[in-house]
Amino acid sequence: MGDLRIAHKPKPHATKRRDGSRRIVDQGADLPGLSPTGWLDLTTEERRGLIQNFDETYKEYLGNLYKSADLCVERYNEFTKMHNRWRRTAILGAGCLACLNFMAASKRLASWENGTLPIVAAIAALILAVLANLETFSNSAEKAQMFRESRELFLDAAQEFDRVWTVHVVALGETIEAYTNAAELYKRIIAVDGELRSKFREQNKDRRG
Predict the structure, then answer these.
(1) DSSP SS3 for 152
(2) Which residues lie closer than 8 Å to 21 by C-beta, 6 or more apart?
C-alpha cells in the first residue's frame, strides 16, 4: 500500500454517486414565506445576501468534508508506515532466526560460549512471536484500509456537493431557483455529513471489535 496524498480539491474522477448527492431536479416549488413575486420584490442586495448566507454555511460543511478526507489520508499513511515497519522487522527477524537455528544445529557452533547459542536462538524466536502478536493486536493493515475507504466516502461526497452547488446555485445567479436549490442542497449536505460520520464511527467500532 502506497501513501495517499492530501488534496483539498482533487480533480473529479468516475465514481458511484451517493444518494445524498444526486442531481437536483427543478421542483418549481415556492419556499415558505417567499413566493417568486416576493423574491422579485427584493432588492439585488437582499437577494444576494440571502443566497450568500446559504453559501457561507454550505461551504463550511463542504470544507469539513474535504478536511475529513485529508485527516483520513494522514491516518492511512500513519498506519501504512507502521505496518511496513513491522513487515521489514519480521523479514529481518525471520532471517536472523534462521541463521541462529542453522548455527545452533552445528555441534561445533552449538558449543560456543558454553552452549548459549541455542538459548539465544530460542529467545530470538520468542521475541519474534511477541512482535507478531503485537502486530496482530494493533491491526495496522486493516485500520489503514478503513481510513482509505473512509477517505473515498468523504472525498466523493465533497466533490459531488461542490459540483452541484456550482451547477445548480452559482450558475443560476440571483434567481428564486438558485435560492431554492441552495436551501435544498444545504439540507442534503447536513444530512449526508451526519450519515458519513455515523458510518465512519460504525466502521471504526467494528474494526476495533
Answers:
(1) helix
(2) 156, 157, 160, 161, 164, 188, 192
